């Protein structure tokens, strides 16, 4: 497994723990998480923390985007693992200078590993729709705060 995949999986686990109420603050979550995962290389830790803090920092905007695509559902009805895979994927699509195909593929593969059997299809469909609506060309490896709208 590649370093970025490991970092994404760590970020997902931290987002999940935060989401289900295990931790109140990001710093508390990080501290406890890294205490339990003390053999993680620093570069993976750093990227995982960037993803986790980024997704939490834009949580309100990300959740609003997810809500656009879940007609007749509420965000709370989505399984917590699926919800956090979506949050992570949307954060990367809008705020990280990475290829969208890689982002979506990574989210789908993580969903296949951690979520229920059919969740990867749901996650793929939403991330693909978000990509088509919100993703823009990344200029100078930065996306303006708030993402891009077509």
TrEMBL record:
Involved in transcription antitermination. Required for transcription of ribosomal RNA (rRNA) genes. Binds specifically to the boxA antiterminator sequence of the ribosomal RNA (rrn) operons. One of its GO terms (biological process) is transcription antitermination. PANTHER family: ANTITERMINATION NUSB DOMAIN-CONTAINING PROTEIN, N UTILIZATION SUBSTANCE PROTEIN B-RELATED. This is Transcription antitermination protein NusB. Belongs to the NusB family. Transmembrane segments: none annotated. It comes from the Bacteria. GO terms for cellular component: cytosol. It comes from Candidatus Fischerbacteria bacterium RBG_13_37_8. Residues 5-132 form the NusB/RsmB/TIM44 domain. Keywords: RNA-binding, Transcription, Transcription antitermination, Transcription regulation. The keyword Transcription applies. The gene is nusB. One of its GO terms (molecular function) is RNA binding. InterPro entries: NusB-like_sf, NusB_fam, NusB_RsmB_TIM44.
